[in-house]
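Quiz preparation item.
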């Protein structure tokens, strides 16, 4: 992290023209939506987690002397509420940029509006192709997560190499998120795509996927791709256990937070969760592997001081700090007198190799034609109550 020494004094920041909303000589105002309520509320803490990191940055001089103020609104994981809250942030609160909006449909729902106004929609919580590959039409919109399609391809390649005779069942959300993962799986399997013997989808609003799990079990698959959000992921583990179905699980990376896996493990006596596989691009502060890591020590100190009510063990807080680090980097590269245009230039020229919250070797790199900031990940396996890294870095596109 760079904290500009010359910006320690408020007088070091020059006054900006009034045409730059959300930026004053002493402050940069950003906003976004997260699901503090609803079925995806587990994701909600990425907002307070990011804010804790901003408070830490502010205490060390801010960005060229300006403090970051972050307004996050609860959208209940409902895209219609995302639209309303985003309009309020832009039109009433006059934020400089929209940051860290959680959800694929939610980012898609607001991008036309934000691009029409040329408001940066930066580092949204999505890895969907519809967002990253839409940059020609929506140049002000960028996600942050590794490609969902790339993640699915990792699983496909792994199965092809290590389980070539697998019978594969897939549960996927009927959304760009789920469809991308499925498409990537098929791409990674290549000629072995016929090993997919059963597929079932669920709607974003569905709160019960038991019927889908029952149908998948009847396929006699021995490998289960679980491309679902946390609520449906827990339910899938538990119902598979009740049905005495013991496939090899692959779990979408958005749903592997340790507390989520702990609930699933408790509900299955570990018989379904043990040896589950997934991918990771950030360090896990709950893992003994990072006990002496400087970033973990920094994270814990930030949580104690700036978010004492948050759970240190909640890796979504860690993710919030990860993406917040990248925003600070982009703001610094936007210049001493940032404009929305200079922030867009910065977010499309990221060359960040020093984000301490990412796994070693994972960088944030973008260009005007590359809107997937994170292109590498590692596979992980669930051992009793911990995710354990294994294998080399792999391409996640």
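Solution:
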């Amino acid at each position: 992290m760079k904290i500009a020494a010359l910006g320690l004094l408020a007088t070091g920041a020059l006054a900006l023209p009034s045409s730059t909303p959300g930026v004053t000589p002493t402050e940069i105002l950003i906003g976004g939506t997260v699901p503090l309520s609803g079925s995806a509320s587990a994701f909600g803490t990425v907002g307070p987690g990011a804010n804790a990191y901003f408070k830490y940055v502010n205490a060390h001089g801010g960005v060229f002397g300006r403090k970051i103020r972050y307004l996050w609104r609860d959208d209940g994981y409902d895209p219609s509420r995302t639209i309303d809250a985003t309009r309020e942030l832009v039109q009433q609160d006059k934020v400089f940029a929209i940051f860290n909006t959680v959800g694929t449909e939610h980012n898609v729902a607001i991008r036309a509006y934000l691009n029409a106004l040329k408001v940066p929609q930066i580092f949204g919580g999505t890895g969907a192709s519809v967002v990253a590959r839409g940059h020609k039409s929506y140049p002000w919109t960028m996600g942050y997560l590794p490609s969902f399609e790339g993640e699915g391809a990792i699983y496909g390649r792994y199965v092809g190499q290590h389980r070539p005779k697998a019978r594969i069942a897939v549960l996927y959300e009927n959304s760009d998120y789920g469809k991308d993962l499925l498409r990537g799986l098929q791409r990674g399997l290549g000629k072995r795509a016929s090993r997919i013997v059963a597929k079932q989808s669920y709607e974003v609003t569905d709160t019960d996927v038991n019927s889908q799990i029952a149908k998948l079990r009847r396929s006699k698959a021995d490998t289960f791709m679980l491309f679902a959000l946390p609520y449906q992921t827990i339910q899938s583990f538990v119902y598979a256990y009740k049905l005495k179905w013991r496939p090899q699980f692959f779990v979408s990376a958005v749903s592997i937070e340790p507390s989520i896996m702990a609930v699933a493990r408790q509900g299955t006596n570990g018989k379904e969760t043990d040896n589950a596989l997934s991918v990771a691009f950030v360090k896990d502060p709950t893992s003994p592997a990072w006990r002496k890591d400087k970033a973990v020590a920094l994270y814990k100190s930030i949580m104690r001081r700036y978010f004492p009510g948050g759970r240190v063990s909640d890796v979504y807080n860690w993710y919030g700090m990860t993406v917040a680090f990248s925003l600070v980097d982009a703001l610094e590269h936007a210049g001493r007198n940032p404009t929305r245009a200079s922030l867009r230039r910065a977010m499309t020229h990221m060359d960040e190799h020093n984000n301490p919250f990412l796994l070693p070797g994972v960088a944030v790199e973008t260009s005007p034609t590359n809107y997937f900031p994170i292109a590498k990940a590692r596979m992980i396996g669930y051992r009793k109550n911990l995710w354990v890294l294994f294998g080399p870095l792999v391409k996640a596109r």
